[in-house]
Design a protein that fits this description.
Low-confidence stretches: 804-817
Shape: elongated
């Protein structure tokens, strides 16, 4: 059927993206604003004009018999393909698909054009009486803040059409255009609605291309072309108009594959020349293939950077389980945590210039109060979450850790970094070490995380080097006190977990006042909360990694023994680790993706094998097993996934033990961890360990002179000989007394400015001498009293307490227990 608009379908197809498991990601180091991902041997999401803006769902291929209907095959479903690159780190793929019974061989060589907003694909199909049919599924639009109830409409308003003169394929949506050109050209072309008149549906019904409608839309549309016999070239161009998209495609087509590939290669080889990584000259530092994998990982990280917004690094060029969802953000957004991990790894790899630009970008995205949003789009679309409610303290601390590392390496900090550091220090002082709104690094539960508090301590020490006067003194005092009180917030002993494993105690994943119970995320409806003491993770591993605890400390080694027993998972690729016990962020039993139910079964994470390896390095061991595991868990193109499958194979879901799941691949954080672990093995020092931390603490717990009482971090038992500061965000009068409000002791003091935006009343050891307990309540400047009738502090305790256990466990631990 030829010509005219495609008829409207009875219903529009459900729009989505593609599987989060990619084979390879690529971009050019030039003026081009195109990023491409490859999965299942075809082109998946293609991004333009920024690294956070996907515009194409996929560009796939059908093979059909040219002698008539009866035989056809979609190459991505066949799954019989190989992928290779010219050299490690040069992500310029050659993909070879082989048909069943060797009926055909299709070679694809895609390359992003460094000089135009276009992507070229050189193709060559061999076989008797076969023809090649590209299938292009546009998903044009703007990735921005969108309520989930509106996700289904995203990209479902696209238009598709063909040019009657040369059969060029076009699509548009939200003011964005694409054009697919062919050389020597298309012999037939068609536009249709997905699931009704598109090319794939046409072949599935008729075993050949029978539909050549000239236009379709608005709706979920697709384009199909029949290519002339023999080798040729496809060019996919993007632009703000039909003419601009055609011009980009034509310019790239005119340049040709060889010249474009040479320019692509030259840009990346120049960048890779400045890498400094453990390599073949140090064969004892890791398993075979490590040097190549590190080079590839560094390039993957750099590929996640935006072109026009310098220093913006997204967390991953993937949408987790994208074939089940139409999520507009996925992982192609900026997180301070993931971006900070990327920048630290690039600095460790020798590209301190890229790390500095990342810090400069983050400094420019800081909230006025000194915090950062949870995550945000590169193109400065407003944050996906309320900037205040969504603040995570580890993400406020991470840019300061990065700044401290760059300063230690002698790298000049970018403009605005100093102001960002001091502003962030104020936010941490006012909100840390625990905030009722803050959630853990997995963005699921509020409470005290060893990972987060450890980063806050380091951040305050870094900030002190830029602060002066009372601000500097307060930053140092807070860091020391939070460090001494870490176990009070995050460590338990004597509960059922310790009884089961014969340990003296353990760090918890989330510490809650009084022990508490955690409402687990990603669980079926009706799931009951779990005691905080029963949840463990590898978060504690950052305490020795940051130089805050000795790796031989029994609290660390006991927790590690529990983690090995509860979270370790042996796979054919090696041992990896679950985020925490009872994790629900992963595929379900049948292999279906998390978005289907919004719960599943958490699978092992390769990056956690890297975190485990760091503990071995710190303990004087070797991390060869963890490095080997991470290498074995990569996909066929060398990408590291978020998660790997850990049970029986489900080949129909592309799930095999020890290999990537459909969650997200690549995960930039995982590539960062691989680089940092290899560097730690080579240098015997974690990348995150700053000299200013090791010089101050020597991995020993400090005895801080001043303890800070905050609503979110109350002091219940003050060790003898310490100063107590009752601090608040605004001025107040402290109405207080001793020994259960002994009338003779009751008095008042006005709060004074402490620095960093805090006010407080300071009670020295002389003020507290001879007293058994302190009681107080605050009155504010407007005359109002705080809701609480009293706060109590036991005085003269023998030492810091550990986390109080909830009822049903061992009871409240005594101070110093």
């Amino acid at each position: 059927m030829a010509g005219g608009p495609a008829p409207l379908p009875p219903a529009q197809a459900v729009q989505s993206w593609t599987s989060g498991a990619k084979d390879l990601v690529m971009t050019a180091l030039g003026t081009s604003g195109v990023w491409a991902t490859i999965g299942q041997g075809i082109l998946n999401e293609i991004y333009w004009p920024a690294v956070d803006q996907p515009q194409v769902k996929d560009l796939g291929f059908l093979i059909g018999g040219s002698s008539g209907p009866g035989w056809w095959q979609e190459v991505k479903r066949a799954g019989t393909y190989t992928l290779s690159t010219p050299e490690p780190g040069l992500l310029l793929p050659t993909i070879v698909h082989t048909g069943r019974d060797q009926a055909y061989q299709l070679t694809l060589r895609p390359v992003v054009d460094p000089d135009h907003d276009a992507l070229l694909v050189a193709y060559d199909l061999t076989g008797e009486r076969v023809r090649l049919y590209p299938l292009l599924a546009p998903h044009l639009g703007t990735s921005q803040v969108t309520p989930e109830s509106q996700w289904a409409a995203l990209g479902a308003d696209n238009h598709a059409w063909t040019d009657p003169a040369d059969l060029a394929l076009f699509a548009s949506g939200s003011g964005r255009f694409l054009c697919l050109l062919a050389q020597p050209g298309f012999t037939r072309a068609g536009a249709g609605y997905v699931g009704d008149t598109d090319g794939w549906t046409d072949f599935s019904r008729n075993q050949s291309m029978t539909l050549t409608y000239s236009q379709a839309g608005p709706g979920v549309v697709a384009l199909t072309g029949e290519l002339a016999a023999g080798p040729g070239l496809l060019a996919l161009g993007f632009g703000g108009s039909q003419d601009a998209a055609r011009s980009a495609a034509q310019a790239s087509l005119d340049a040709g594959y060889e010249a474009t590939a040479a320019a692509f290669t030259g840009g990346w080889q120049e960048w890779m020349a400045d890498l400094s990584l453990p390599g073949p000259a140090q064969p004892a530092l890791g398993p075979p293939g490590l040097a190549d994998a590190l080079r590839e990982s560094a390039v993957v990280l750099r590929t996640h950077a935006d072109r026009t917004v310098t220093g913006a690094y997204v967390a991953g060029l993937a949408i987790p389980w994208g074939n089940y969802t139409n999520d507009p953000g996925g992982y192609h957004m900026v997180w301070c945590r993931d971006g900070g991990e990327t920048a630290l790894a690039l600095a460790a790899a020798g590209h301190t210039d890229d790390a500095a630009t990342a810090l400069g970008y983050l400094a420019g995205r800081q909230n006025r109060d000194g915090s950062w949003p949870r995550c945000f789009f590169v193109s400065r679309v407003p944050s996906a979450f309320d900037p205040q409610a969504a603040v995570q303290l580890d993400e406020v601390a991470f840019p300061l850790l990065l700044a401290g590392k760059l300063d230690e390496l002698g790298v000049p900090l970018p403009d605005g970094a100093a102001n960002a550091i001091t502003s962030a220090a104020g936010y941490l002082a006012r909100s840390g070490p625990v905030s009722g709104q803050d959630v853990d690094r997995w963005e699921e539960n509020p409470g005290a995380s060893p990972f987060t508090i450890g980063l806050e301590i380091v951040a305050m020490l870094v900030a002190a080097t830029w602060l002066t006067g009372p601000d500097r003194a307060l930053a140092l005092a807070l860091a020391d006190n939070w460090n001494e009180r870490l176990e009070e917030f995050t460590y338990v002993s004597g509960d059922e977990v310790d009884q089961a494993f014969g340990t003296g105690g353990h760090y918890v994943r989330i510490g809650l006042p009084g022990g508490g119970r955690v409402d687990l995320r990603n669980q079926p409806p009706g799931t009951q909360p779990v005691d905080a003491a029963a949840l463990v993770g590898l978060e504690f591993g950052y305490l020795p990694r940051l130089g805050l605890r000795d790796p031989a400390d029994t609290r660390v080694t006991d927790t590690l023994a529990i983690v090995e027993a509860m979270l370790g998972a042996d796979t054919p690729s090696g041992r990896a680790y679950h985020r925490y016990n009872i994790d629900g962020y992963g595929e379900w039993l049948d292999g279906s993706g998390w978005p289907v139910r919004k719960f599943g079964i958490g699978r092992p994470w390769p990056l956690l094998a890297g975190e485990r390896g760091h503990l071995d390095v710190l303990a004087g061991g070797d991390a060869t097993a963890q490095l080997q595991a991470m290498l074995a868990m990569r996909g066929r193109g060398g990408l590291l996934p978020e998660q790997v499958w850990d049970t029986n194979p489900l080949p129909w879901q592309n799930l095999r033990p020890g290999l990537p799941t459909g969650s997200a691949m690549p995960l930039a954080w995982a590539h960062s961890e691989l680089i940092k672990l290899a560097v730690a093995v080579a240098t015997k020092k974690p990348v995150e360990l700053l000299t200013l931390v090791s010089d101050r603490y020597h991995a020993a717990v400090p005895a801080s002179q001043t303890w800070f009482w905050r609503d979110s971090a109350r002091v219940l038992a003050l060790p003898a000989g310490r100063t107590l500061v009752v601090a608040d965000l605004s001025p107040f009068t402290l109405h207080y007394g001793f020994d259960d409000w002994n009338p003779a002791t009751i008095t008042e003091r006005d709060a004074q400015g402490l620095g960093l935006g805090l006010s407080g009343v300071t009670l020295t050891p002389a003020d507290l001498a001879g007293r058994a307990s302190l009681q107080f309540v605050r009155r504010y400047q407007d005359g109002s009293w705080e809701p609480a009738t009293r706060h109590d502090v036991t005085l003269g305790a023998p030492g810091p307490a550990t986390l109080r256990l909830s009822a049903g466990h061992a009871g409240r631990l005594a101070a110093g227990g």
